């Protein structure tokens, strides 16, 4: 899958709302993806359909994120006996889910990556009054610091929980340039916050919304992702 950017791009300085730079990979905004996003945004979409569409969008997000990984040339022999000059992905990837919603993207990563793969978990809860995050739990695999980390989190609103997650991952020894934040829907504000704090981060998303509500929810958004995915609303 190719990764597209808007024409207004910048490769230096802080992220500017309304523009995308080389650190942001926005999925191609074709009719099929937009139709899937419309289903997620529709308030009447049932739990089963919401989960199924999440899986489809997740496959596209993971494919785009995997395109960012290093690879090496390799030669294989096809069933006809001819040699094929191909490539092989070489990074050791760890998918870190921000619970609970982040777990919704784990299956897509399992399907998509054929190289060394492991998973970690973070439990971060946002105070609905102050919007401030608290880290309650973290669990990472062995040799975590040497891996390329895919943070799995469907929603990026204020950026508070995302920043707390990245801080925890960096404290565990992972280099900032080896962290990719993967999400379905990002607010302009949240993207700005992330890149102001972490200029070497990379982000892959399916959609970007411009506004936050007074209660710091994405608008138009799609509601509480965890509640809609797990049917707890």
UniProtKB/TrEMBL annotation:
InterPro entries: PRTase-like (IPR029057), PRTase_dom (IPR000836), UPRTase/APRTase (IPR050054). Its cofactor is Mg(2+). It is an enzyme of class 2 (transferase). Pathway: Pyrimidine metabolism; UMP biosynthesis via salvage pathway; UMP from uracil: step 1/1. It holds the Pfam family UPRTase. Belongs to the UPRTase family. This is uracil phosphoribosyltransferase. It comes from Penicillium frequentans.
